[in-house]
Amino acid sequence: MQLPKFYRLHLFICTNKVDDQNCCGQRGSEDLFFALRRLVRQAGLAQIAVTRTGCMGRCMSGPALVIYPDNVWYAPHSSADLACIVRDHLEGGKLVTPLLMPALEPPLPGYDFPITKQQ
């Protein structure tokens, strides 16, 4: 059975905010989310969705932006970074190597809530 493909690419950007400067939301990701939506729309990329998310476990390297189904993780810090990603990756199909998120092992699941001994 062939499932419908709603989008060619789906971009998720973490806008999670906790009382910690290391989270994506404390690093301006909400503004980056709106900037990315604007850039994608201006480029006429109708088959690409941009969605904000909660914690994706990459807080220390964020703001976190992941592109699926490519499974490419970026750490953009400005509108200029996002413009490069839209131009080179989304339109050109090339990785923006300087903006790739560094690999952290292990990921930090559940960073968005306090961990207690019972958990």
Task: Describe the 3D structure.
There is one protein chain. The chain is α+β, with helices and mostly antiparallel strands. It has two helices and four strands. It has helices at 29-42, 79-91; strands at 9-14, 48-53, 65-68, 72-74. Residues 112-119 have low confidence and may be disordered.
Radius of gyration from the alpha-carbon trace, in angstroms: 15 Å
Number of helices: 2
Largest sheet data = 4 strands, mixed
What global shape is seen?
Answer: globular
Helix content: 10-25%
> Order of strands across the biggest sheet?
2-1-3-4
Order of helices and strands: EHEEEH
pLDDT averaged residue by residue: 86
Which structural class fits the helix and strand makeup?
alpha+beta
Low-confidence stretches: 112-119
Tell me the number of strands.
4
**Proportion of beta-strand residues:** 15-25%
Seen as an oligomer or otherwise, the chain set is single chain
Distance between the termini: 40 Å
Short description:
With 119 residues, this protein is an alpha+beta fold. The chain has helices spanning 29-42, 79-91; strands at residues 9-14, 48-53, 65-68, 72-74.
